Amino acid sequence: MSPKIASLSGLKIVIGAVSLLLASGATSSEPSLMDADFPASLDAAHAYASGGDDDWSDLDSETEMAELLQFEIADVAADTGKREYIARCEELRIVPVAMLIAKLECEHINLRHHGMGVKGAHALAAALEANTHIKSFNLGDNWFGDEGAAALAAVLPSNATITSLNLAENRIGTHGVRALCEGLKKNTAVCELVLQVTA
């Protein structure tokens, strides 16, 4: 075990069907936590995950964006991250995920398979900077890629609330995993990180 990984003592990382329990250095087999399939075209998945041509121009999306940005959020608690999320979505010109906005005050959120992409990860990171409610977050299969993982990793040192983070099936490679490890070095709350990929 390398010294960098050893410094993450007490963290459980799930990669494939094997859990690495870094507190003891032991490994144990566990059943698959995710049952999603890979996309038919990995080239298309990589292009989308790396922020390819995903600019939106759909009239329904533009209408939905305008409606979401007109929400009266003056009475929203500052510790939810809703204002930050909506502002970052507007800046990135992406449609906010309504379910995320509705659940930012919850402790356990499942946003698996919402197709948030790289830009969505950047917007989500803005929300997580302020959020003090979310304890477990399933963000599996959202096409974050390395850049999206790095955006979320940048929030880890300042977020002391999230204890379980599922980033399975997000096409995260070596660069994304390294960014997450760097973020985890300065985070004492996360006990479980899932990076599982099913074949």
Q: Can you walk me through this structure?
A:
With 199 residues, this protein is an alpha/beta fold. The protein has one domain (40-194): Leucine-rich repeat, LRR (right-handed beta-alpha superhelix), CATH 3.80.10. The protein has helices at 3-6, 42-49, 59-69, 82-92, 98-103, 117-130, 145-153, 174-185, and strands at 12-15, 18-21, 26-29, 108-110, 136-138, 164-166, 192-194. A seven-stranded mixed sheet has the order 3-2-1-7-6-5-4, with no helix packed on it. The longest helix has 14 residues, at 117-130. The two termini are 26 Å apart. The relative contact order is 0.17. Mean pLDDT is 76; it is low at 1-7 and 17-59.
Give a quick rundown of the structure:
By secondary structure, the chain is α/β, with parallel strands linked by helices. Helices cover 38% and strands 12% of the residues. A seven-stranded mixed β-sheet has the order 3-2-1-7-6-5-4, with no helix packed on it.
Q: Strands of the biggest beta sheet: in what spatial order?
A: 3-2-1-7-6-5-4
* Total of domains: 1
Within the CATH hierarchy, at the fold level, what is the topology? Leucine-rich repeat, LRR (right-handed beta-alpha superhelix)
Give Rg in angstroms: 17 Å
Question: Do you know the CATH architecture?
Answer: Alpha-Beta Horseshoe
Count of helical regions? 8
The helix content, as a percent range, equals: 25-40%
* Global geometry: globular
Classified by CATH, the class is: Alpha Beta
Quote the average pLDDT: 76
- Category by helix and strand content: alpha/beta
